[in-house]
Specification:
Two copies of one chain form a homodimer. Chain A is an alpha+beta fold. Chain A has 14 helices and twelve strands. Chain A is 41% helix and 18% strand. Chain A is globular.
Amino acid sequence: MDVSPRLLVVRRGKKEESFHRGRAVVVNEAGERILSIGDVEAAVFPRSCLKPIQALPLVASGAADRYSLSDAEIALACGSHGGSPLHVATAQSILKKIGSSCDALECGVHWPLDSGESRALAARREEPTVLHNNCSGKHCGFLAVGAVRGLDVAGYTNASHPIMREVTSAISLMTGVELDESQACVDGCAIPAFSMPLARVATGFAHLGTGKESSPSLADASTRIRTAIMQNPIILSGKGRADTRITEECQGDVFVKSGAEGVMAASIPALGYGLAVKIDDGAHRAATAVMANLLLQVLQKHSLVTAKAVEVLKGHACFQLKNWNGTDVGSIEPISLNGL
Amino acid sequence: MDVSPRLLVVRRGKKEESFHRGRAVVVNEAGERILSIGDVEAAVFPRSCLKPIQALPLVASGAADRYSLSDAEIALACGSHGGSPLHVATAQSILKKIGSSCDALECGVHWPLDSGESRALAARREEPTVLHNNCSGKHCGFLAVGAVRGLDVAGYTNASHPIMREVTSAISLMTGVELDESQACVDGCAIPAFSMPLARVATGFAHLGTGKESSPSLADASTRIRTAIMQNPIILSGKGRADTRITEECQGDVFVKSGAEGVMAASIPALGYGLAVKIDDGAHRAATAVMANLLLQVLQKHSLVTAKAVEVLKGHACFQLKNWNGTDVGSIEPISLNGL
């Protein structure tokens, strides 16, 4: 088995303390590789990276229009949110518009991903509900598809349910990967989890950015999804979180989406590029830093980046580690990416 | 550079999703290797693994006796606690006995490590204090050394302060590594952080288990530290946490201590063995599972383990991953360790 290259070093003082190996790829809209690091044909589970693609049927089915969903509500369907009151209210609003309720959601309950939101919820003496699940927006989107199609939504998270089949088909069309529902694993929020080559995750994001290489209805849906995300980065993830800050500061040039276990994908619509990173060990800290570094280099090469965006991307790619007293104790440093 | 072997696989369904590489070593009290996986001479930062060794001066200086510290209070000085009210009260009790206060602690403030304790604190509408810092017990121990020695404790976290020199000297004696205070990096709680070969961390834990290979006062102190930890595993870390559960269930046969960035060390006093693990990428989940697997194999070989301990160790080494609905979605599986 190939050993993935080292992509990020964690230093204590000047000495290496830990490091992360992984793979990264940039493709154009034809799926051709612009940059490739490590074995990008090996399978990964894109997990929540796929949410913007899994949300395509919400638009393509006509549900978003039928129920007059706002861009913020569509962005929530694409996001892994931090569980703030705004996120919860946005999910509730979708449910109200489609005439459904929390009881229909099959994603399960967890405390907000954002530890500050979690403590704030506890301070209000409340318990988390299914709406605080970081995937609640995506699931509300699935229910909207069920509603517009007039389907019985019970068991909608099963791979063989018509809603999931529509979602799986969108993933196939966008990534070019044939997916067999009988081979599906199960994701954290109960829906099918498929694996595919890392390069195909990037291809899916290239297509999401351009709308090309897919059906006309998915192309239109891609445009709506892209706009919704870029105009509502705070809904996609949460204040101060990487997906939000990068998408926010790149001001329409980029959107990114992270997934569990060290996966992150991005789209640069103006270039028709899709990017994907997988950290072998599943570390989110490394996926974020490596993706920020990759974006920085691609965007700078094409003069697509503002000074503020450079600052934000650099801040995610390479930074000092501080202890509880605010003293510098080390650093996170990406390894230089050649070949761009 | 050597590539460390794969030690743990994270599966989604039956497929590999992530994996961790690392190094592991078991030594006897003479420092001879019983088992060695990967480059165990390469330097690691043992970080909080060293706490039981850093607590030796608390006993050896006479401070523990002078201030009538209980075993629970000594265990807190060896631990990375979860920030429960019991942990906070135990730290307060040390400060009271030595006539000091929170103001003297230089470890900084953070929300409790244990997310449940963090939310409970928020629900009480309280803010964390320096006592909630997972290292507060260790720092109270340092202040106790300062008190018994009649030292000015201001700046006690600096490598050149007499308290830190005494602590550094104890680390040197137990691990056999010459440490240069001018080469110290800085730990999360502001004290010096030294690096050393992984095998020497294991050697330190072998000596902590037997008291041999060190000065008579450190040997006596080792006995007291060992007893204190083994009788108060809940104080060492917290309810349900790995250090606590493993030390608790192994009923005097083992104590373990984890450190930041995927380091974990253990002592099996009856065999005179010290064990240490470092996960290259710094993942705690992998350090715990690999150490549990290593302990299981060593203890079973020497018939030193009860059925309950086997169950607990297996539960940390190899287990099903469940989603928010409680459905099995994958597994954590250690890679078999040969050579035992």
